Amino acid sequence: MGVKAMLHSYERSALIGNSESWVSLWTHSFPEVEVLIPAEQIQARVAELGAEIAHDYSAENPPLLVGVLKGSLVFLADLMRAIPLPVQYDFVAISSYGAQTEHTGQVRLLKDLDSQIEGCHVLVVEDILDTGLTLHYLLELLRTRHPASLRICTLLRKPERHLVEIPVDYCGFVIPNQFVVGYGLDYNGRYRNLPFIGVLRTTNLEPK
Ligand code: IMP
Question: Which residues pair with 90 in a beta bridge?
Answer without folding.
Answer: 66
